[in-house]
Amino acid sequence: QVQLVESGGGLVQPGGSLRLSCAASGGTASTYTMGWFRQIPGEEREFVAAIRTSSHTYYTDSVKGRFTISRSNAKNTIYLQMDTLKPEDTAVYYCGASRAVLSSIRDPSMYYYWGQGTQVTVSS
């Protein structure tokens, strides 16, 4: 059983930056596809970024060039560096662990384990 704990959310002005962390325990993050998703109340959980065991990374189009997903094997932790934040990035951000094939890494139903989420609010 893998436990995931997100941190690093908060309130930031448009154009600002945040770095989210997802600490894993009970399993090795580098042996899973690790993904970041976000969710607004009343809407479905949306794919943001993923990093596979090969270290290849994938992003939804709206965050390409602004967000960077990375992994520290030594700390068993996944990060999401978010730059040039926009009000539409406001959501609860979740990290998840999956063994999905490449074609399914954007599907939240393919993730076995989830963290509790961290709120990101982009507002002036």
> What overall form do the CA principal axes indicate?
globular
Biggest β-sheet strands, sense, barrel: 7 strands, mixed
Radius of gyration: 13 Å
- pLDDT under 50 segments (min length 5)? none
- Mean pLDDT, as a whole number? 96
Topology pattern, helix = H, strand = E: EEEEEEEEEEE
Number of helices: 0
Query: How many angstroms does the end-to-end distance come to?
Result: 40 Å
Number of strands: 11
Sheet/helix structural class: mainly beta
The residue fraction in helices comes out at under 10%
Note the beta-strand portion: over 45%
Write the layout of secondary structure elements.
Blueprint (H helix, E strand, L loop, with lengths): L2 E5 L2 E3 L5 E8 L7 E7 L6 E6 L5 E3 L7 E6 L4 E6 L8 E8 L12 E4 L3 E5 L2
Description:
The chain has 124 residues and is mainly β. 0% of the residues lie in helices and 49% in strands. It contains no helices and eleven strands. The protein has strands spanning 3-7, 10-12, 18-25, 33-39, 46-51, 57-59, 67-72, 77-82, 91-98, 111-114, 118-122. Strands 2, 4, 5, 6, 9, 10 and 11 form a seven-stranded mixed beta sheet that branches. A four-stranded antiparallel beta sheet has the order 1-3-8-7, with no helix packed on it. It is globular, with a radius of gyration of 13 Å.
